[in-house]
Design brief:
CATH topology: Rossmann fold
CATH class: Alpha Beta
Oligomer: single chain
Structural class: alpha/beta
Number of domains: 1
Helix content: 25-40%
Largest sheet: 7 strands, mixed
Strand order of the largest sheet: 3-2-4-5-1-6-7
Keywords: Signal
Number of strands: 7
Shape: globular
Length: 231
Amino acid sequence: MLLLPVAVIGLTLRQRMPAAAASVTLPVPPPPVIGASRPHGHPVVPDPFTGSLLALGGPGAADLARLITLSALEGPGDDRLVVLPRADAAALFGLDEDELLDESPDQLFLPGTLDAALAFLETELRIRDDSEATGGEPKLLLVADCEQEAGRIAGLFARHPQGLSAVVLGGWPGEQAAVDENGLVSAPPAVAGLLPKQASAMSRAEARHRLDLLTEKCQGKSTRPKRRRHR
């Protein structure tokens, strides 16, 4: 038997590796898991401003909605606006009826009702359609229980493609992404690429704490006139 030195064997294997590697298809990296820690400790979440409507259902839907909302509010710059009706602010963050009426961050608009929120968005998007874009228009995100306004919300997306994004809770009549109690996400094909396979928990108390920190940080730094709070 011919015994080759170990160094020769290693060289032979290294010479063959490029050819072998060329025939191997590398696995696609898995989608990011919400809850994976970044260096600053915040969970990784999907882009809140995809121009899509994300309808969420299941016992973990509120947690995922909180994460996406906070991601939108805590993002860099001022080119975004989260529209969060009062009832949803109470359900997701524990806000009382009159909290943050005058102290909310510039990136957060708290209309009194879903009807007022949709009226604001309808007017804002109509004005944008009728005006020349300046490049300074904020990206829009609606976070709300759809209540009885599913048709009206769908109409906004039909009339203004890519004009806004939405996270919709409640009895949405179309397809929903289901989030179970363990955070596992089962999404329809149309939005599967926008969501991770698992979402971390986000309690109302933790979400409220982060919102309070953001509010304190923004106090005294407002650069935009306050909007009228439609009741």
